[in-house]
Each structure stands twice: as C-alpha cells, then as structure tokens.
Amino acid sequence: MTAEIINGKDLSTELKLEMKAEVEALKEKGLIPHLTVVLIGNNPASKSYVKGKEKAAAETGISSSIVELPASTTETELLQLIQELNEDTSVHGILVQLPLPEQIREKKVIEAIHPDKDVDGFHPINIGKMMAGEDTFLPCTPYGIITMLKSKNIKIEGKHAVVIGRSNIVGKPVGQLLLNENATVTYCHSRTKNLQELAANADILIAAIGRAHAITADYIKEGAVVIDVGINRLENGSLTGDVDFESAKEKASYITPVPRGVGPMTITMLLKNTIKAAKGLSNIEG
Ligand code: NAD
C-alpha cells in the first residue's frame, strides 16, 4: 500500500480562502478581527514563526500587530502589557510567542491572558473546557490535526489512536480531542516500555516527539493513518519529521509530510481562533 498524502499546505490554502470571505463579511458589519503577537528577545526561530503568523493573517484580511520587547523584559512589565491588551477592545486575540526568557514564568503569562482572547488555547480555563468537550479555543496544533483527519473523512470513532508525546501543547491535547471524537486513546512517552508494540497497534498514530525519523515502518500497522507533528532540523539544514516518511508511506493508508504537513495547519487554526475570538467578543454571529 502507498499512503495518500494529507497535504497541510494545500488544506491551509483552502481554509484561508474560506476565512478571507468570512473576514470580508465581518468587515462589512464593522468588525476587523485583530491579533496581537508579543515577541520577546531575539530567538531566530521565534522571529520566523511570528513573521509566518503575520503573513498568514494578512492573507485572510485579519489585522495583526507585533509588539517586540527586549530579552531583558521583566515578568511585571510583560504582565502589565498583557493587562493593557486584555482591556483594549480593538484587540481580539493575544499570543505571546514561546519560549520566554528565563526570568519570566510561562505559567504566569498564560494565566494572565484573558480566556476570551486566548487564541493559543493554553489558558487553564480553555483547557478545562476542552476536556469537558465544551466549545472553546482549541490549541492550534491539535486542532489542525483533527481538521486534517476530518478533511479526508477519516473515521475517528472507535479507532485506536496512539499518541507519542505528552507535552501540554501537542501530545496531551491531541489525545483529548481524539477522545472527544470517540477514539480509544493510548498515550506513550519517554518512559513507555513497549513503545513499538503499542504504536504498531494504532489505527491512528500521532508522532509528537521531536526526534528525527524515530518512527520507522516497524512502528506502523498496515493501513494506519500516520500524523507526523515533529519538526527537526538535520545537519544539512533541512527540516524533517519524527516519522521515517519513505518507509512509513509504504505501510500507512494516509500520512502527513514534513514540511507541508501539520506545520502550516497550526498557523491556520490560530487564524480560525482569532476570528472566533473577534465574533465572541463582539457578539456577532458568523
Ligand atoms: P516536547 O519536547 O515538549 O515533548 C516531547 C514528548 O516526546 C515528551 O512528552 C516526551 O515524553 C516524548 N518523548 C521523548 N523521547 C521519546 C522517546 N524516545 N520515546 C517516546 N516518547 C518520547 O515537544 P513538543 O512541544 O510536544 O513538540 C514535539 C515535536 O513537535 C517537536 O519536534 C516540535 O518541534 C514539533 N512541533 C510541531 C508543531 C507544528 O506546528 N507542526 C507544533 C508544536 C511542536
């Protein structure tokens, strides 16, 4: 079997076109969705992620601004800025780019963002709502993964989903969303004893580890759906996933590539969340 590729870049383009039309309609009602991104310090990867978000927002007509702060910014200064953004009625979504300099506690920052403007979906209130299956801002990468599965009408209900990785931003929430869709979910992580055996039992396998090509064909059941979240930079500078794509695609039924897989979907779902925030805060129906 050669797997069908789920191209996140193409799906993102489609979704952004839909969003562009939606934003135009909102503008006619006087609402311009606005995302403010806060970037602290000079981390080149963070700068490039923020640029990507700005570009994608512009493509859909969402207005965005970047607040750049020096690496020496104190926690108090950042919390003060977040407070101002919380109160600013022209700002609908607030995203503080992670990682933060070591003098700033991530938890404090995440908890300071008003849950109604938390377009990253990291606030404990929004995580709680997601767990309860309530309507809320879903964290962007897991939301993107579920959207990719649904775009191909892949059945989730009753399937055995194995998630490798248990971070708060990817592994844990994607498992929860799959559970919300009635999958039977197994979480694996760095202390899991029989990883290969568990993975090879998956109907839907999500790799979110951060180790290039850790998941070879031996970890994949014939016909499984394989979602590769990993973004790893090789010595030659190219990007690659956690899955050994070439061998895996011969066994999987569907597979996501890296690049052009989950990555573009993450930004796209951020834009979806920004529109949702703008509508919610303005009480405007879509
Ligand atoms: P993380 O480092 O916070 O978590 C990695 C997880 O992998 C941990 O839970 C750990 O237990 C598990 N793990 C580590 N070694 C393992 C092993 N040998 N066997 C089994 N499990 C193991 O990383 P993260 O933030 O969840 O990101 C994971 C990967 O996804 C990274 O490559 C990251 O760059 C990428 N990522 C991609 C996107 C995207 O938009 N595509 C978004 C976020 C993260």
Automatic annotation (TrEMBL):
Q: Which GO terms describe its biological process?
A: L-histidine biosynthetic process; methionine biosynthetic process; purine nucleotide biosynthetic process; tetrahydrofolate interconversion
Catalytic activity field: (6R)-5,10-methenyltetrahydrofolate + H2O = (6R)-10-formyltetrahydrofolate + H(+); (6R)-5,10-methylene-5,6,7,8-tetrahydrofolate + NADP(+) = (6R)-5,10-methenyltetrahydrofolate + NADPH
Superkingdom, taxonomy of origin: Bacteria
Any idea which positions bind NADP(+)? 165-167, 231
Q: Might you give the EC number(s) for this enzyme?
A: 1.5.1.5, 3.5.4.9
Name any one GO molecular function: methenyltetrahydrofolate cyclohydrolase activity
- What pathway does the annotation place this protein in? One-carbon metabolism; tetrahydrofolate interconversion
Keywords, A to Z? Amino-acid biosynthesis, Histidine biosynthesis, Hydrolase, Methionine biosynthesis, Multifunctional enzyme, NADP, One-carbon metabolism, Oxidoreductase, Purine biosynthesis
Q: Which GO terms describe its cellular component?
A: cytosol
Query: Where does the Tetrahydrofolate dehydrogenase/cyclohydrolase catalytic domain lie?
Result: 6-120
All copies of domain Tetrahydrofolate dehydrogenase/cyclohydrolase NAD(P)-binding, residue ranges: 139-279
What HAMAP family does the record point to? Answer: THF_DHG_CYH (MF_01576)
The record's subunit annotation is: Homodimer.
Q: What does this protein do?
A: Catalyzes the oxidation of 5,10-methylenetetrahydrofolate to 5,10-methenyltetrahydrofolate and then the hydrolysis of 5,10-methenyltetrahydrofolate to 10-formyltetrahydrofolate.
Matches recorded under PANTHER family: C-1-TETRAHYDROFOLATE SYNTHASE, CYTOPLASMIC, C-1-TETRAHYDROFOLATE SYNTHASE, CYTOPLASMIC-RELATED
Q: Which family does it belong to?
A: Belongs to the tetrahydrofolate dehydrogenase/cyclohydrolase family.
Q: Tell me what this protein is called.
A: Bifunctional protein FolD
